[in-house]
Design a protein that fits this description.
Blueprint (H helix, E strand, L loop, with lengths): L1 E5 L3 H10 L4 E3 L2 H6 L5 H14 L3 E5 L5 H14 L3 E6 L2 H12 L4 E6 L2 H10 L3 E4 L1 H6 L4 H15 L4 E4 L5 H10 L3 E4 L1 H6 L4 H17 L3
Bound molecules: erythose-4-phosphate.
Amino acid sequence: MKFFIDTANIDQIKEAAELGILDGVTTNPSLMAKEGITGTDNIYAHYKAICAIVDGDVSAEVISTEFKGMIEEGRLLADLAPNVVVKVPMTKDGVKAINWLTSHDIRTNCTLVFSAGQAILAAKAGATYLSPFIGRVDDINWDGMALIRDIAEIYTIQGYDTAILAASIRTSRQIVECAKAGADVVTCPLPAILGLLKHPLTDIGLAQFLADHKKAEGK
Ligand code: E4P
């Protein structure tokens, strides 16, 4: 399972990259706005800066909601760097745009996915990645992890190539559950990734090892 970081914050992307386990980055217009990045030129420059930090795929989202605008934007975004993946929302025009971009060798990430039916349509359109938002599903008291399991089962039975990129992850526990449920990729905030490091027995065990070493050395 690949690890992407879900942020447009350069410092956090660098911190995750330095860990040596980072496979890519996802952004969205809200995450760009959170970093105070506004205006097309600045937004595109920011995507280029992110793409220079990571070797893996970087999802850059279109703002247009109509087919023509989506494909024009998609071409511009794809030209920014070879590792850009164009993020397109799960709408009627979005599905058409994914199909068009795929047929023109531009990779896509179908975003805002909340059902298995949407996942089937995105795969049929040729999406490179599919982003089911599990946290937002849980927020409305449905089962986000069950959605990942359903999609994984369908994609296996049908032999679809689209990678399941579990998104809207809030906790470290969800990352572990996604690995069991068959996600190909998880995209997470940095604290959820760092939370995987934590176990009290690791801290206790390390303190004991160091104390024993010190005692044996007569210090
Ligand atoms: C990723 O591609 C999504 O943009 C992101 O995971 C959404 O997460 P949120 O539901 O925490 O905003």
